[in-house]
Inverse folding.
């Protein structure tokens, strides 16, 4: 049976990649300067320039009615749906999709509508979607793919660092005192997304270059056959730092396929400019 993979714009995949994979992307919304946009409506460089000017951005999740408007036409066309959702540990988007699924399921008993909680964010979610879409193109059926997601999502390692602690402070991830002292001393946190899909500070290092190197060290500690992997790197308008990590990963592990892209405005509103993230499959998150 034919099926459609759907995901969120929080996966931070390029338009070219999602078009090539045949993945439908639902744009989440963000508000800045008193105006609301959908993801991809504002160039990332423009968005991060506004954040650097001190502008604040807020984000909005998708509600159940919007999900129904997205899912139902696919079901009506005779296709099944596999929706890979932004982490429930960071957003209520997954719960909204579950409400839509439960409302639509009785209306289309012959169709399959699966909602999968990726417990992932940014290009970690994107890497999971990318690998799933590759399997779909190779002929994997929807039920087998759902099982694959369940076994591989817990292996999707997210390691990242931020340049400005104040964005994490506003989101409640670090205290005001930690942000103040860390900024004064040049302390950079190393964080990851845990097994429950929450954003967790793990360690602190002094200096930007050391924080970037720490991400590569985390990959060395847990990556599964890294040379054979596709690795994703996302950044908050600091492409040179992302390229630095890419070169380190290539040199250290012999990785051949690395994709680099912006952290989109919906994630970037909470992580800020200068964030760099490294994503790969590991023995643990």
């Amino acid at each position: 049976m034919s099926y459609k993979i759907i995901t969120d714009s929080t996966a931070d995949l390029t338009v070219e990649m999602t078009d090539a994979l045949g993945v439908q992307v639902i744009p989440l919304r963000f508000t800045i300067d008193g105006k609301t946009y959908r993801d991809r409506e504002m160039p990332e460089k423009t968005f991060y320039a506004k954040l650097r000017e001190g502008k604040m951005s807020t984000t909005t999740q998708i509600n159940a009615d919007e999900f129904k408007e997205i899912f139902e036409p696919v079901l009506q066309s005779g296709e099944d749906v596999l929706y890979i959702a932004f982490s429930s540990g960071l957003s209520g988007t997954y719960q909204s999709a579950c409400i839509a699924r439960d409302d639509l399921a009785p209306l289309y008993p012959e169709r399959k509508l699966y909602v999968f909680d990726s417990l992932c964010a940014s290009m970690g979610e994107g890497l999971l979607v990318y690998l799933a879409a590759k399997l779909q193109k190779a002929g994997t059926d929807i039920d087998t793919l759902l099982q694959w997601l369940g076994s591989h999502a817990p292996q999707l390692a997210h390691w990242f660092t931020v340049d400005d602690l104040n964005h994490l402070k506003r989101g409640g991830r670090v205290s005001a005192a930690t942000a103040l002292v860390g900024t004064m001393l040049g302390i950079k946190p190393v964080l990851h997304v845990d097994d429950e899909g929450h954003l967790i500070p793990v360690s602190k290092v002094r200096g930007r270059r050391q924080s970037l190197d720490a991400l590569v060290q985390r990959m060395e500690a847990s990556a599964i056959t890294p040379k054979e992997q596709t690795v994703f790197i996302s950044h908050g308008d600091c492409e040179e730092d992302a390229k630095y990590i890419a070169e380190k990963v290539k040199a250290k592990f012999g990785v051949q396929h690395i994709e680099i892209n912006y952290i989109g405005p919906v994630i970037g509103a909470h992580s800020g400019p200068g964030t760099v993230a490294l994503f790969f499959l590991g023995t643990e998150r």
In short: Residues 122-137 form the longest helix (16 residues).
